[in-house]
Amino acid sequence: MNLYEQIQEAVAYIRTRTGFQPRTGIILGTGLGNLTDDIQVAAEVDYTEIPHFAHSTVESHRGKLVFGTLAGHPVVVMAGRFHWYEGWSMQQVVFPVRVMKFLGAERLILTNASGGINPHLKGGDIVAVRDHINLLPENPLRGPNDDRVGPRFPDLTDTYDPALRKMAVGIAREHHIRLFEGVYSALAGPNLETPAEYEMLRKLGSDCTGMSSVPEALAAKHLSMPVLMLSMVSNVSFPPSVIKVTTLEDVIAVASEAEPKLRLIVREILKRL
């Protein structure tokens, strides 16, 4: 069964569970899962039920698709993402993005927690990503291309939609939220980076770094979906003198405390679409 047929099979199954028509897809990152509390839920489908879906093995990720309205806007939300470090292939990591598109989602909003590399960033700050540096060892577009999904060689100019990013910046300014535009770098994980790697990433021009989101952004661009990525800085990682030992619990604690700011920005964006 080829990729297009797998997508159609997953969509067909979901349509047996709900006829809800989303306009925007959202993927929730570590410590940011409470956004689902703001949704008027129409349906929920566990990943384990959907053909060809992987399942989340990260404890803080719930593992279900949530359909409903957020700020009056119809959304499909991935409550828990897949990561390459969990052992999934890149095709499995981005498969939900492709399904969202074929369910009717016109754009994709990505959220994640990241390590801050720009020395101006503080824990709890939000970065509206304007570009990325992809240091992952695999690409979700590798392999035979199906033109029904997207072009063989997608151009990555403005991968992160300038209009959506401008909207996020304006909303943050209105509500006195610290938000910066910057470059996100993606590494394989699951270990956090070494001090030397943080230094390297800063020299490359990265403002924050994490282990996710870039594959999904590549898949969305392949599908001609505008992308907004909002990265929550959970720990400060530069200069090396300020690095502290960081645990998953630390990341979740900072992300959870800052989450209301991110929820506000996402709600306000959806109101204006």
Report on the architecture of this protein:
The structure is a single chain. The chain has 273 residues and is of the alpha/beta class. The chain has a single domain, classed as Rossmann fold (3-Layer(aba) Sandwich). The protein has helices at residues 3-17, 90-103, 162-174, 195-204, 214-222, 248-272, and strands spanning 24-28, 40-46, 64-70, 73-79, 107-116, 126-134, 179-186, 208-210, 227-236. It has a five-stranded mixed barrel with strand order 5-8-7-6-9. Strand 3 (64-70) and strand 4 (73-79) form a beta hairpin. The model has no long low-confidence stretch (mean pLDDT 92).
Overview in brief:
This protein is α/β, with parallel strands linked by helices. Helices cover 32% and strands 24% of the residues.
List the helices and strands and how they pair.
Layout: H1 3-17, E1 24-28, E2 40-46, E3 64-70, E4 73-79, H2 90-103, E5 107-116, E6 126-134, H3 162-174, E7 179-186, H4 195-204, E8 208-210, H5 214-222, E9 227-236, H6 248-272
Parallel strand pairs: 1-4, 1-5, 5-9, 6-7, 7-8
Antiparallel strand pairs: 2-3, 3-4, 5-8, 6-9
CATH classification class:
Alpha Beta
Q: So, CATH architecture?
A: 3-Layer(aba) Sandwich
Structural class based on helices, strands and sheet pairing? alpha/beta
CATH superfamily: Nucleoside phosphorylase domain
In percent terms, what proportion of residues is strand? 15-25%
CATH topology: Rossmann fold
What are the segments in which pLDDT stays under 50 over at least 5 consecutive residues? none
Structurally, the number of domains stands at 1
